[in-house]
Design a protein that fits this description.
Blueprint (H helix, E strand, L loop, with lengths): L2 H14 L4 H13 L5 H7 L11 H5 L5 H14 L16 H7 L8 H10 L4 H16 L9 H4 L1 E6 L6 E2 L2 E2 L13 E2 L28 E6 L7 E4 H20 L12 H4 L3 H9 L6 H12 L12 H6 L7 H22 L9 E4 L2 E4 L2 E2 L1
């Protein structure tokens, strides 16, 4: 997903969940900021390096694919963008431990880690809610891909556009500086290489931005599925993601006693279903303006545009940085990353490294007090 859903749609979801305008903006900002908080940014503001929630193209391009670097990449991308569905998944027949460790990182909605993610954010502020909403919504967009570089898992071939109900083969370019064009059918993905641990097979690189565009319906053949065909209906998935965000945010506000997986705020969103689906199905690269207009109609307030530098001065000048927006965001990011990577470690895998789980003043390593 991209800014249109992570910021503007998240704002709409927060308003429908009952949050006031200012709080909804804070949740939405934290949601989108997950895609901005790189190590480069953290160095600039002198924030904690362990709070990184994404990596820029220059950071990834300059990475040596050694063991420690691969663990760092996995910690970031599996924790926030490709939340694993089942860390104990099994397959028929024999498979190597290394293959199973990667296979178990495949992202899908409604796994145990999603429940942990949302429950963990309760009572920890708006920034933690935003981090959780980013992770939740990406489970829908990034389904069937894993947050670790792996050819045998993330490679994919034979993409067909099914958006208009007519099968049309997609031909990708590989130059990221060339703008994508819906009308001309110009889309970009990573090159088809043969290296198992290449950065080109991190996440949905082989699918380009198709998972990030809400209007796309497509089919393709993934490596992890032995190149058998899979159909992906983005508008349907994005609608479910939106309804689940509303429900999750209601839970975080205290309207529900527990967060139940595969549960959605359908009744609340139903009066707006036609409007939401019209936005989701509109063939456009960027839906920010449409989501923004919807949000302003819902709240009657002006929704300011996202500005990744908005809270830098507050953080830089603060005597007690933990009391700033960025300080609270960094704390939430560290908590989420430590939880996910510790769960991976406790499952018997070191693919994300040896992890210590941090939760307030508690720290647990491999499930034991550390």
């Amino acid at each position: 997903m991209q800014e249109d859903f992570h910021y503007y749609a998240a704002y709409c979801a927060a308003i429908l969940a009952g949050y006031p305008h200012a709080d909804s903006l804070s949740i939405a900002y934290a949601d989108q900021f997950v895609d901005c908080c790189t190590e480069t940014y953290l160095k600039k503001v002198r924030g904690p390096m362990e709070a990184s929630t994404t990596q820029s193209q220059p950071e990834l391009a300059g990475s040596e694919m050694d063991h420690l670097t691969l663990q760092k990449i996995t910690r970031i991308w599996a924790s926030f963008h490709f939340l694993p569905f089942d860390l104990y998944a099994t397959l028929p027949g024999w498979h190597s431990k290394g293959y199973l460790e990667k296979y178990r990182l495949i992202c899908k909605p409604n796994g145990d880690l999603l429940v942990d993610t949302v429950e963990r954010a309760k009572g920890k502020g708006l920034e933690a809610a935003g981090v959780a909403m980013h992770t939740l919504s990406d489970t829908w967009a990034h389904t069937y891909f894993a947050g670790t570089p792996s050819l045998v898992i993330n490679n994919a071939v034979d993409f067909y556009d099914m958006t208009d109900g007519v099968e049309k083969e997609l031909v990708f370019g590989h130059n990221p500086t060339v703008p994508e064009d819906v009308e001309k059918g110009n889309y970009v993905n990573t090159p088809n290489l043969t290296e198992e641990k290449s950065i080109m097979v991190l996440g949905h690189g082989r699918a380009g931005h198709l998972p990030d565009y809400s209007f796309f319906r497509y089919k393709y053949m993934p490596a992890w599925g032995r190149y058998e065909e899979i159909y992906k209906d983005n508008p349907a998935d994005y609608y479910k993601a939106f309804c689940q965000m509303v429900y999750a945010l209601q839970y975080l506000r205290g309207e529900h006693k527990e967060f139940v997986r595969d549960t959605y705020a359908d009744r609340i969103v139903a009066p707006y279903r036609e409007r939401v689906m019209a936005i989701l199905e509109k063939r456009q690269i960027n839906a920010c303006e449409d989501w923004k207009a919807f949000g302003e109609e819902l709240s009657g307030e002006k929704v300011r545009d996202f500005d990744s530098f908005a809270y830098e001065a507050e953080y830089r000048d603060a005597g007690k940085k933990d009391d700033t927006f960025l300080g609270r965001f960094f704390r939430a990011a560290i908590d989420q990353k430590s939880m996910v990577t510790n769960r991976i470690y406790r499952s018997g895998s070191k693919i994300a490294g040896i992890s210590v789980e941090q939760d307030g003043k508690k720290a647990k390593a491999a499930g034991k007090e550390a």
